[in-house]
Write a structure and sequence with these properties.
Strands 1-5-2-4-3 form a five-stranded antiparallel sheet. The chain has five helices and five strands; from the N terminus they run βααβαββααβ. It has helices spanning about 15-20, 30-35, 60-75, 105-110, 115-120, and strands at about 1-10, 40-50, 80-85, 90-100, 130-139. Helices cover about 30% and strands about 30% of the residues. The protein is of the alpha+beta class. The protein starts with a strand and ends with a strand.
């Protein structure tokens, strides 16, 4: 089972407060995952929804932003970060980043780290699209 939680980043407020505060799991099914959090790999998906003509600099994203993310969060427990560009035409998702963290506590530590504002500040260098965060926990 994978549990996905979603949050939209507000440029005015920086990182979504729910993630920084430690997003609570939904009540439904909590008994199924109690005791597993913090012990299993946790994935965060950062998606960039938009039209095909939305500005998104793929070259900058791959050459600069992805290494910045690894530098900022690698020592905290980010194991890998992978970029996907699922569409070139029409409306939909312009880009997806899959971040694999050692466990839930590593994800929370990364999002609360002093490096996170630097990661968020870099968004303006490759897009104006508001990213959406989704967290998946493999159980």
């Amino acid at each position: 089972m994978v549990v996905l939680l979603e949050c939209v980043i507000s440029y005015g407020k920086g990182m979504c407060g729910a993630f920084l505060a430690g997003m609570a799991m939904p009540e439904t099914g909590m008994h199924q995952i109690d005791g597993f959090l913090g012990k299993i790999m946790t994935t965060m998906y950062v998606t960039y929804p938009g039209k095909s003509d939305a500005w998104f600099d793929r070259d900058y994203y791959v050459a600069h932003h992805m290494p910045l993310v690894m530098e900022a969060w690698g020592s905290i427990g980010l194991k890998s970060a992978t970029a996907f560009f699922p569409t070139d035409t029409g409306n939909g998702t312009v880009a997806i980043c899959e971040c694999q963290f050692r466990d839930e506590s590593a994800l929370q530590a990364a999002l609360a780290s002093p490096e996170t504002p630097r990661v968020l500040a870099d968004l303006k260098n490759f897009t104006k699209i508001e990213p959406v965060l989704q967290r998946g926990i493999n159980i």
